[in-house]
Amino acid sequence: MNTPLRRVSLAMMIMIVLLLANDTYVQVVKADSYRTNPYNQRVLDDEYSRPRGVIVTADGKTLLASSTATNDRLKYLRVYSNGPMYAPVTGYFSSIYGSVGIEKVENDILDGSDDRLFVRRLSDLITGHDVGGDVELTIQPKIQTAAYNTMVQDGFTGAAVAIKPSTGEILAMADVPSYDPNPLASHDSTTQTNAMKSYNPTSPVSPLINQPISATYQPGSTFKLVVASTALSQGADPNADTLPAQPTITLPGTSATLSNFGKETCPGGSGGKVSITDAIAHSCNTAFSTLAGQLGGAAVAAQAAKYGFGQGTQIPLNVVSSCMGPRAGGNCMNIQGGLPGVFQSGIGQRDVQETPLQNALIAATIANGGKEMQPQLVESLLAPDLSTVQGFTPQVMNDDVISPDVASDLKTAMLQSENNSGKLNKLPNIQIASKTGTAEHGNDPKHTQPYGWYVAFAPADNPQIAVAVVVTSGGHYDAATIGALVAAPVARAMINADLGGG
Q: What is the mean pLDDT of the chain?
């Protein structure tokens, strides 16, 4: 073979190898990426060629998301009932922006591509009846409605979560401001883009942020339950008067001061000292900051970790971790600022950041005698014929967060705290154990409405529901706002709806 021919042959061989390599890369390595790319029109046409399964609430009756036939090129339109109320749960299914929420994490069931539906898909090929499976949630409509409507009516922004303590089932997960998923599901691109623009304001918060599980806030005095758990687990007497009752203390090694609400002396106790129970009942900052300092940052962080701090989880939606220190640099569970930082962290300030779901889990764990259940949003996955593909089984996440005795001591203190937390939306026939919280934040905390928190469970002697509510702003309130005034009425409305009082 002469030299020119040999060179041509070699060049052709190289091009064939490159072509095969590229074909392999496209067909194997990038196949799934191209298949799931929202701009792939063939995939898009296929996804909309059949109805997605429905998303329903725990009663099996309240339809949250369904598909309706159209005359468009995209044959089915996704429709959301009470869209803003349930948006943190359902998410959206969009031809431009993809999907989020249950629409995303349970997509394979909803579009029928899940391997567990393989036999059903074979049957569909024969019958021509091609439809996705259904997702049944743990959400209870009456509790969700109470949470969302109360916050909207009061003009609040914030989030609310309810959990069944014995199983971990999430009974409600509300978010204000929220958004309507229906425009994002529209087949009109302009409608979708305009909706997405309107849902992304710079302030105060984007409705697209799922506050119950994706936003963290200083928990304020609700964090005192974690500090008390630490002390009681080390054998502290809940009724011994050992903590300072004075209205103001100076942080160790500094000239900075820390005061009780209204700079009041902590009620109860004797000789200028109060007990852990009294300090919880009256939410005394000087007592709990001192207690945190005595325990040490490592011990408080270790107890917080038992409750779930520093750990992301799935419900199956992703839940961001709650932190004791700055999230950056691997310091999530490291309290910063030395001993003064521990004092400030002991009352849920400084770098302590918590999701509403995490705070609800703390209340639920105390209600459940110290055993923390894995939170779960999905009750069951159903095939198109309504047979169960996967059911819900309660799972223990941590069976030794605190002992039953410690849980009982905390419940006693929370019952007393509830007596000092106002009477808004409170029904006399429902005994509630609770803790309020008020957390300063922002660049000008003394002139900014604080975060108002309320965590609780009821009935106290046989808990069926645990709740956490945070009000981040709104209403006619100001920098003097406290959690008992804003968050407590929302939470009690949820409790009332569940236990038959509202």
A: 90
